[in-house]
Each structure stands twice: as C-alpha cells, then as structure tokens.
Amino acid sequence: MYIGLSTVLLVSHNGETRADFSKIKKAGIDNIELSSPSHSNLESINEIRKNNLNIFSAHSDFINIDISSPDKKIRFDSIRTIMTRIKFLNEIGANIIIVHPGGWYSNQNDKEIRIKYSIESLSQIASYAKEQSVKVAVENLPKEFLADDIETIRMILNETRKLCNLNGTLGLCLDTGHANLTGNLIDYLDIMGDEILTMHIHDNFGDRGNDRKTALDDLHLLPGEGNIKWDIFFKKIGSNYKGGFIFEPIAKNSNGDDGIDYCSLILENLKKLLYSDNFLKKIINSR
After folding, report:
1. What is the CATH number of the domain that holds 60?
2. Whole-model pTM?
3. Structural domain that includes position 248
4. Are 128 and 83 in contact (CB under 8 A)?
C-alpha cells in the first residue's frame, strides 16, 4: 500500500497554490498525488523530489472539464487537456492518472447520453494512456454526478475495456467520501475490490440534501472527523490491498481571516492519525 497525500491540500480557499512540500514529509507522508494543474510543472516536481517525496499519481483537471458533456467542443477540449497531463506523467515517471467519468446530470435521459459520451471519451484517453505507460483510474462521484452508482461505473469501465482491448491498465479510484455520500462504500469493496488501482481517503457526514450540483456535503475531512465506519472499512480491505491510499483533505479556510493556517493544522492532525494506536497504524505496518 502506498500512503500518500493529494496536493489539493496546498490549494487555499481563494484558489492560490502553495508549494511548501517539506511539511508533507515531516507529517510522515512518502507519496504525492498531484492535484492542482499549477503543481504539474517542473519547478514543483523538483521541489517534491528535493523533499524525497515520490509522485505516485496525478488527478486530471476537473474544473470546467467534462468528458461526458453533450457539447462536442467541451468533450474535445477535456480529452485534450487530460492527454496533456498524461504525457506529463509519462515524462516524470508517474504512472496513474485519476479521471472523473463525467459531470452533474439533470435527469435520467441526460445521464444515459452522458454514459455514452463518457465511454467514447475514455476509450480515447485510455488508449493514449496505455501508449504512454500510464494507468487510468476512474473515480466514483457524489450523488447526481455521472457514475454515482456501482452499476454505471462498472458499465463504463467494462465497455471501455472492450473498445480498447485493455487489460489491467484501466480501473477504479475508490473515493471514500463520495461513496459515503451515495451510501455504497462497502459495496464497492465487495463488488469491485479487485479493480481498485488507488483510493482517495477522506470523510464526511453523508448526504444531507444540500446543493448536490456543487457537492456541498463533500466535506473532505480527515478519517474520524465524519461518520464513515473506518473499522469496518479496514476489515474489508485487509492487508492484501497494494494500491494507493491517498489522503484528500481540503483546507477550505486556509489562510482565512482568522489567521489560522489550516493547511498546517490538518497536516499536524494527519501525523497524529498516522502514528496513533488505532486501526490506521495497523495498515501502515502492513506496507
């Protein structure tokens, strides 16, 4: 298992990015997932390596990106942007890219159309990724976003594999927070456990019916700060899982008006979690 941290934590509430990677290593983290596009440049890569951090994966762009959009230009631009990120990953020696299968859908008919376009787009992305020796991990999403259910994400993966003749280079990024919002976290482990390439680890209090289009209930808290039953989760994954275990907390108030550096505070709390005597320590010792 590769314990890591998404650099989304280094993006403040006003969208600015910070590149102090030294604090991540001090928190006991060895692996990085590049999140913000501003972190996918040689300057940031050099800083990451300077701090003896391994780049395990990268998240494809997701702001104004939608590979399932009925708008042909949006799909084309989205595919091209993701392929650019894949090429960059190949150049720096990282080999997993996380892709959102689509965006928010307005009704069932819209969903069916988007599934079709998502498969077509992923076929292009996954074929190119294979040429670049990069694996594609498709992420389960919150309620009312495409692939918010296991049946849909399995269909998208299976149909894409058939079209591209892929084997082992296309799988699932299990997002624990998103699965908690859709109420099927343990079902993902039972049904798709063998297809998980990496995980996004964060917590929330489940779906409270807040604005789903902007995913307001997707709080990105550290494990234990929400209501996910982590003891059951860890019993299910056991010690055989060898993929990514990427923490994805968000410091939404980082550098806020109260003067508190929430980014540093989260890293301190993460370090305590990593070295505590609870269930997480057992997972780390199994690495």
Report:
1. 3.20.20.150
2. 0.92
3. 2-285
4. yes
